Amino acid sequence: MNEFNQNGFKNSNKKGRVIRIFTYLIIAILVVVGAGFGAYKYMLKPVNSANKQINLVTIPEGSSVDDIAEIFKKKNLIKNTSIFKLYVKLHNNASLKSGNYHFSESQGVATIVNHLQVGGKYQVAVKNLMIPEGTQLKEIAAIIAKEFKLDEAAVLKQLNDKAYIQGLQKKFPQLLTNEMFKAGIRYPLEGYLYPSTYKYGDFTPSLDQIITPMLTETVKVLDHYKEKMNQLKLTPHQTLTMASLIEEEATGTTDRKLISSVFYNRLKINMPLQTDPTVLYALGKHKERVLYKDLEVKSPYNTYYVKGLPIGPIASAGVDSIVAALEPAKSDYLYFLADKTGKVIFTKSLSEHNTEKEKHIK
After folding, report:
1. Is the pLDDT score of 360 beyond 80?
2. What is the pTM assigned to this prediction?
3. Can you give the residue ranges of every domain in the chain?
4. Domain 18-124 homologous superfamily, CATH
């Protein structure tokens, strides 16, 4: 073979390799682009086409696209925040209107963005469900039933259903432990439903949609003070129990941390807490005055009958009482009482307490 043919053959092979490499590269790029486009289209699809359950989504005024993407991701209504933001950008970056909307997991990103861009006809009225601080589970059931026109007994029955509560335990394993199922506990969820104002759209939510946000709020508050709980070696159940006692004893102007200090001072010396709200809870009814015979009721909630904390919370405590339970004031007080104006008077000894009692309680 002459030199020309050899060189021509080499050049031909080299050119062939270049063409093959270039072809493979093009194919690889097309595969990557195709896969990327496929992934993009997948991320735009509904989270769960079969789930038509309505969720209220509130977009606050002034929310950025980033903010809105996070709102939808937290409610599990979109698969990916980056894809949501990219879709908005590719569609002229149109403004998304603030307001209250109904969405479900069966709606894709295109539908969601369209509704947010149009606003108006897709916006909905909102119902407020207010759970005051110090509310007991029976009262919460009554509030829910009244607001959503449900049967009160049926609501309370489900809130006390062990299988239902065990389902909630899977969602909130750190909060809802088996402490809530101790023998003698009246309502396992007592004290766990955070008191606040909750917003719902113009539809009847499932009980799960009502209860889950309340438990979520409790988790948020306790997580914020997790280090304090660890320092005091308190479980969530014990924290909410102590907080509920403070909540029920406090008046509007009370220094809750001082009330907390009284309870902790008593616990240190193995002295019964002797707080009247636990007697009323044990009796299962409200009374203007607790009688001496009431103090003898044999109940794990009655802190005249048992030493230490009662078996569980007696009401839903607000953040001030939860903080007081975890940050008690430093004091030597062992007693307190409220006068007719609601002012709480703290004393260090029984004789001082009885003197103040003579002055202020007739």
Report:
1. no
2. 0.78
3. 18-124, 127-223, 233-360
4. Endolytic murein transglycosylase (3.30.1490.480)
